[in-house]
TrEMBL record:
Classification via InterPro entries: GHMP_kinase_C_sf, GHMP_kinase_N_dom, IspE, Ribosomal_Su5_D2-typ_SF, Ribsml_uS5_D2-typ_fold_subgr
Residues involved in ATP binding: P119, S120, G121, A122, G123, M124, G125, G126, A127, S128, S129
HAMAP family: IspE
UniProt-listed Enzyme Commission number(s): 2.7.1.148
Signal peptide as annotated in the record: none
Protein species of origin: Allorhodopirellula heiligendammensis
MF term (GO), any: ATP binding
Identification of the protein by name: 4-diphosphocytidyl-2-C-methyl-D-erythritol kinase
Record-annotated GHMP kinase N-terminal domain positions: 91-173
Alphabetic keyword roster: ATP-binding, Isoprene biosynthesis, Kinase, Nucleotide-binding, Transferase
The family this protein is said to belong to: Belongs to the GHMP kinase family. IspE subfamily.
Amino acid sequence: MSNSRRPHYRTSPPAKLNLFLEILGRREDGFHELDTVMVAIDWRDELQLQTKSEPGITLDVDWLPSRAAVAVQLGVASDDALLHVPTDESNLVYRALNLITQTSGYTGGWTVRLSKRIPSGAGMGGASSDAAAALRLAAVALADLDSGLARELTNDKLRELAACLGSDVPFFLGDLPSNPGGDVAAVVAAGSPGSLARALGRGEKLIFYQLSTPHCFIVVYPAIALSTAAVYGRAKVTDHPRCGLDVINAFVHPHPNINAEILYNALTPPACGLSPPIGEAIQCLRELERPTHLLGRHLPHCQMTGSGSACFIWLTPDGSPADDGCRLTGVDEALLATIRERLPGGALVQTVATCPAAPKIHIE
Ligand SMILES: C[C@](O)(CO)[C@H](O)COP(=O)(O)OP(=O)(O)OC[C@H]1O[C@@H](n2ccc(N)nc2=O)[C@H](O)[C@@H]1O
Ligand SMILES: Nc1ncnc2c1ncn2[C@@H]1O[C@H](COP(=O)(O)OP(=O)(O)OP(=O)(O)O)[C@@H](O)[C@H]1O
């Protein structure tokens, strides 16, 4: 089959927010034992791949709507390190495709286009989500090319490969059924609309919960990229760990008057120690007056996600769907403009809603 006639496999990897993160201990392998609760949100990259007869990976990366437009919003030059995304084997998509190629015995190669919207070093899981999407797309593409190639690519194997790529990667495979029989088709099954997961261990032991209603947030990326390893390196292990179940109950069974403290992240103090503007951003969000149209909705539900630097406001702690299908209407832009004005320096500010961790795969 000529390369030009091969199908394109496409999906839109979502970002994630950690609604809760506690550090339970330091492990022998240098990682930390975690109790964390994550939701996927519809701040998305775009990933498309095609098989090709020649071995090797051709990876093109760009920013949406354009590198220049993102640079202007961030208040940086277009060649700033904040916008650097590798196109070699240090890109997690590249590494995911190498693992799929080695595991399946596929002798061809891949042509890949990655379009970024999820900022790097934000604690939003951008690279991890892209890697999980690459595993899913490649598994479906090889099953279509030659079912024998996909025999090894069971959901359990994909989960194993995901855990090798990074602690956040398994979450973005979604709530995959275990299928020792090697039914790759289950890989395509996207999660339920708006799923929430508790992650234990390094982050690879996942329990998914069904959300009865989507939740929406304002997410702020304050143009600061933090190294996850550096933040963990400064983190402390507590003798009195909090538990992730409270925040799960608050999201699965929302009710009015939820305590703002429920959004807890043990990595916030070390991240703020590394970069004080993160603490200033959280404080700025907490001090926002409650806009009149958000009557009854509390804005102090703010926290940093993952190892930072992005922070978020939970807009629907009482579970009432925000206007216009979980998006704020009208005043939305005014509120976002207020936040942009209040933040020193450039930032990306966006309203988002919960979505499936493993998005739909399109074949064209
Ligand atoms: C902060 C979170 O994003 C919360 O979901 C994750 O724990 C980090 O997931 P990730 O970015 O995929 O992290 P990895 O790429 O696996 O690890 C990067 C570095 O973070 C530290 N790390 C990560 C996960 C973990 N449970 N303990 C750690 O100490 C380690 O220094 C590791 O070398
Ligand atoms: N697909 C990718 N997209 C963006 N960056 C990538 C990708 N693959 C590798 N990287 C490199 O990884 C670094 C971290 O990217 P990112 O922060 O998105 O990773 P993550 O660990 O998934 O997310 P988090 O911010 O939650 O730690 C980037 O600065 C970049 O150098």
